[in-house]
């Protein structure tokens, strides 16, 4: 399984991904799901991926070859992030159709991507590209997008992320979201990759990789658990409410 988060706030972007992949309970391995594309200096584009690993690798290979061959459409000549998302969708659909044509009934070649970055003087942003090739972006009310096993880590994002949240606070929130997911789903696991991008900088020099025994991750997990336990203990007792008999089915 997979869990990836992309957040776009006023100050820039924060991207987070796990690294666990599996093809069954006896075939678990580690693959980085955060990919920086080799673009020119006036842009920075990063992809997070979930889904079939063969499709993901085929899509990434095509994107890199199109850049190298200076194809008619590639990530170096698109003018907008939305155009990059549309191009990514076309490439992904083509690779999925090619793999699906093998005729294997139990083979699911679908892949989902988060595309994030900034192009020239355009605003930074994030896009979720679905297996069907269509895409959505974030909003001021919901400044994040997720792919993969997203349900366990969503509540903390909804509670704490705002469009004006600082990048460092966003990063900590994403790590808590990732840790909550790893705790509840064995298919999501370390190493955890995290990247902060500050708007208009066009540099990617705030990258972190957290192994399972990373002391910062362990400390964060311990403090979060302690504060949750304190909050739970402070909740009012149920006996403070007025109890009443269970309604009769004949009433």
UniProtKB/TrEMBL annotation:
GO terms for cellular component: proteasome core complex. Pfam families: Proteasome. It comes from the Bacteria. Coiled coil: none annotated. GO terms for biological process: proteolysis involved in protein catabolic process. This is Peptidase.
